[in-house]
Structure formats: C-alpha cells, structure tokens
Amino acid sequence: MSTMSYSKLTSASVQGVDGCAIAVEVDLASGLPQINVVGLPDPSVRESVERVRAALRNSGFQFPMQRITVNLAPADIRKEGTAYDLAIAAAILIASAQLQERHFKDTLVIGELALSGELCRVPGVLPMAEAARRIGMKRILLPAGNAAEAALISGMEVYAASSLKQLAECCREAEGWDSLLWRGDERPKSSSAESVNASATDSVWAENRLDYSDVLGQHAAKRALAIAAAGRHNILLSGPPGTGKTMLIRRLPGILPPMSDEESLEVTKIYSVAGKLARLDTLITERPFRSPHHTISAGGLVGGGSIPRPGEVTLAHRGVLFLDELPEFPRAALESLRQPLEDREVTLARARAVYRFPASFQLAASMNPCPCGFLGATAGGAQGQPECSCSQTAIDRYRSRISGPMLDRIDLLVEVQRPESIDSAQSGMSTADMRALVQRAIQAQQKRRPGFDVLWNGELSGVALRRAASLQPEASNLLQQAFDRLGISLRARDRILKLSRTIADMEGCEVIEASHVAEAIQYRRLPGWS
Ligand SMILES: Nc1ncnc2c1ncn2[C@@H]1O[C@H](COP(=O)(O)OP(=O)(O)OP(=O)(O)O)[C@@H](O)[C@H]1O
Ligand SMILES: [Mg+2]
Known about the structure:
alpha/beta, Ribosomal Protein S5, domain 2, Rossmann fold, elongated, binds magnesium ion
C-alpha cells in the first residue's frame, strides 16, 4: 500500500457564461470499497464516477478497492456536466500512486471520459481557459478536440490528449508531456485566429452576400436601418406584404459596426458554452445575426431548463435578434423579451442559484399593419392594389399582441410602403453607401468613449446618456414639447434622446440640433396607431 492517499487537482466549471476554477480532491481510506462524491454535485457528476471506473479499468489501471471520497470545492457552486471526469480519474490515479503528481502541477485539467478511456470534447472550454489564466495558471490539459479553442487564450500552454492511456504513457516517458503540447494546426492561420491579446488587428466589416443595392426604393427604411446599425438601436418595420421588409433586415449584417476584440471574445465564449462554435480555432469576429422562427417558446428565446442554457437573446449578444412577422410570436415569448431588452442581460432563478447570461442584443423586427397586411397601404400609383379587409376588432387584436411596453423599447418604428413608381424606385443606397454613414457615427461614438463604460448610443442610460447628449436650446425645447404633447413615457423620452444622438453623430454634429430631435420623434409612432 502506498503512503500517498490524498491528491488535489484543479478543474473548472461554467456558471452562466463565465468559467470558474474547481478544486477536485480525492481521498482514499481503508474500509468497504465505495465511492462518494461531495460538494453539491448534480446527478450528471455522480454518473462521472461510473465512467471513471470503467475508463480506468479499460485503460489498464486499477480502480482502488478502498473507500474513495471525491470532493468538489467550493461547495456552494453547483457542479454539473462531464468536464470533471479527467480530473477525478487523474486524482484517483495519483492518490493510488499509479501516476505521479508532479506532472499535473499548476495545470487545469478538463475532459470527459468515454467508458473506453477515450477523451471527449466538452463545451465551455474558452471561458474555462480564461478562468485559469485569471488565477495565474499557465498550463491546461484537455481532450485533443478542445485544444484549438483553449489556445485562443494567449499565454496558455495547451496539452492535448486523446485518451487516458496516451496520457499515462507520456507520464512514464522521460520527456513527460512534451509530445502532448499542442502546437496548432499545420494549416496557415487567418489573422483572426491570432491569440486574444493580439489586438492590433484591424477590425473589418462582415462579409455579406446580400447587398442593399438589391432593394429598390425604400430610401426612408434604408436610412432608418443605417441609424439603427450605427447606434445599435432597436427597429421595427411595418408594411404591406412584398414590400421588402424581410429583404431589408436580412441585409443588416453587412452594415453592422465591426466588433472590437473584447466583443469578439465575449461572443465566442457564449458560443463555446452553448457548444455552437462553427470553427474552433478562431474567435467569432462577425456580429451574431439570429432569426428564430415564430414557433419558438419563451424558454428558447431567453434561455431555460433546470440548469439554464443560453437562449436566442444571449446567442444574439453584441449582434442582432431578427424577429420576422413579430405578431406571430407567442405573446409569452414576446413579453419575456422585456427584461433583457431593458437590462441587457437575462437572470434565471433556480432553486440553488441565480444564473445570469449577457443579452445585449439589437432587436430588428418586421410586421404587417393588420392580419391581411394591406391596412393603410398606399396605391403607389398602381391600379387594383388590394384593400384592407380586416374588421377593427381583428386589427385591434392583432396589434395588441405587441404590448405597449414592448413598443416603448423600440427606438425606430418605420413604415414601409410599396414604392411610388418604378422611376422613383431606383436602387438608392448600396451597402457601401450605408457603411459610410455608419462609419461616421462609429467614429463620433468612439471619440466620446473615454469616461463611459458603454460605447453604443443605444446602450447609454442615465448620467452617461445626459453627458453624451448635449442639446441646442431649440432641440431641447422640441424634446420637451414632444414629452408634454405626445404623452410619451420617460423611457421613450430617453430613447428619443439616444436616437437624436446617433442621427447627429451620423451628420458629424457634436451638439444635437432640433432637426435631429425632429427626425427621432418621427420614428416614435406608426401611422394609424394610437
Ligand atoms: N423594394 C424591393 N426591391 C426589390 N425587390 C423587392 C422589393 N420589395 C419586394 N421585393 C421582392 O419581393 C420579394 C418579397 O419581399 P420581402 O419578403 O422582403 O417582403 P416583405 O415585405 O417581407 O413581405 P411580407 O410582409 O409578406 O413578409 C423579395 O424577395 C423581392 O424579390
Ligand atoms: Mg417578410
């Protein structure tokens, strides 16, 4: 019997979308052979014991016939998932003197074990590696399938194994883990695949196959979309069928401001946790554009489950959530958006913990003005345009699906009509033209950034908003009048102010003028809506 009967390794878990280090302790004592896991483990972690038992045997090790206690600390964090398998297995092997502790010094150990002893990928490695760096660890051992993702965190030595057997063999060799050191793919890396710290890379606009030059007419809607993109404002397009609403919003990704490195890392972490990284060796550099179908549930939209998973609003963090045909979404789903639209994060309370997910998304939505779609449609010079056939009750019921508080959170309400005539329906602004408008507003916002903790006008509130938005006296009067006469809420008043800020930024004006406020007020109402 060996003298060593205790060992301690470091693993990690994910809480919401952030990683945190977890100590895995194993103690072997004499007594009836049994194994206990303590420290608030979820059933998925208890199953880990069975996988570890089989994996050890199938890799040629002995499973100690002793009383084994596995402790996961800190005890107040709920442990779930399969990422602790490898740490538990390795700690048992060390405590029973089948492996040497020195190999694992200062190393974060992550990975799921198959019964065969193969190592399997786990979700959330990016935030786990970030957590390791935060506490000053420099080494990480994980399944080969997760190596590229962990290497996105610069300054980490990444060791990748494909099985417990391979790991054990390396521990026996003179070179130790040298052959496990992950040196990257042979493929040449793109610039965005550089480590997170390489922040000198120029941010670039997203590639988008869809160009705004495809959309004829709709000059006003294009301008409104440029404003929305420039300040990250929520926007709703309303109009008859076939006028180009879906087309217009589908082209939005091409004019969204490029993401900063910080934003890229945040988004990539979310996709890592959700197990939705399309490419494992690069950060996501394009703003997410999510367009869930209207059959989605409230849980799908904001996140849910007994151990909550991020929903569409979190997957759209730093990007766009596109809700096409807004009134078709279940009322409960739409109402669930109110909190994240206001707080820019989702909080989900569960019995043992409160989970927080970031949700700073921009809402872009479309709808028809009534169930048949033709209410208030202008003939646009044409004969035989269908007329609205809906009863007032039907119209009211349709509109009531989008509550007042919901509309209050949308900065730009835009009516889209059939173009007047083919003459006036030249293509108008292309994606490149609209980017030029957005670019000017980006620069103005960046100039103001020092001193503010948020960058985008649409995200400003309170003191930061008031400091950013200085108004000419006439502009200030106009805003006051609108507040008195239109009976708008204080929230709506702030939204007009933010929107005016973006319009002024697009025109290169430091102080907001009356014309900017006037345009912003116009976007508060849809014709025919009370
Ligand atoms: N302004 C436009 N310029 C060019 N093509 C257009 C325009 N509007 C509509 N179209 C054509 O009509 C098709 C339907 O447009 P789109 O789906 O964007 O309409 P919509 O306003 O979303 O209608 P609905 O209310 O029925 O969803 C497009 O694929 C395109 O071929
Ligand atoms: Mg449509």
